[in-house]
Write a structure and sequence with these properties.
The protein is mostly helical and 144 residues long. Helices cover 55% and strands 11% of the residues.
Length: 144
């Protein structure tokens, strides 16, 4: 199956990021566009739609002759799916808000929902809820 140009650009950028020790790259739109024989706006489209915070990426750009795009891949601690109490889950939510992967309204709403639902549960059920929420966050943010 033939992949689209956007798919190929996305894959190329992801490979560059994975090869980077810091999980971060700086690229120039024009150079990448030249590599793929396309216009820079095609590169901009791929970056804007496929490297968003909700997918675990932070992008920063500077336009102009010496402009660049910096793309950073975020990772959350590896024990994301072994949350044992509400405090650790809330720490995770706070970390995601600090990294701008969740805005404060989303994070606070999530905390409120977890607290409200957890009130009527046994300790074991509550732990299961915390782990389920952590796994769902991980899947949503595409950080596995």
């Amino acid at each position: 199956m033939k992949r689209s140009l956007a798919d190929r650009i996305e894959q190329y950028i992801k490979v560059l990021i994975e090869r980077s020790e810091a999980k971060q790259i700086e690229i120039q739109r024009a150079e990448l566009a030249e590599t793929f024989s396309c216009v820079p706006s095609q590169v901009t489209y791929v970056i804007a739609t496929r490297f968003q915070e909700k997918y675990g990426y932070l992008t920063e750009s500077r336009r102009g002759g010496k402009g660049f795009v910096r793309i950073t891949r975020f990772s959350i601690s590896s024990d994301i799916c072994t949350i044992l109490d509400g405090d650790r889950l809330f720490d995770l939510i706070n970390e995601l808000m600090e990294k701008k992967m969740l805005d404060s309204k989303e994070g606070n709403m999530l905390k409120h929902i977890v607290l409200s639902v957890g009130n009527d549960l046994t300790d074991n059920e509550r732990k299961h809820l915390y782990n389920s929420v952590a796994r769902a966050l991980s899947e949503y943010l595409n950080l596995n």
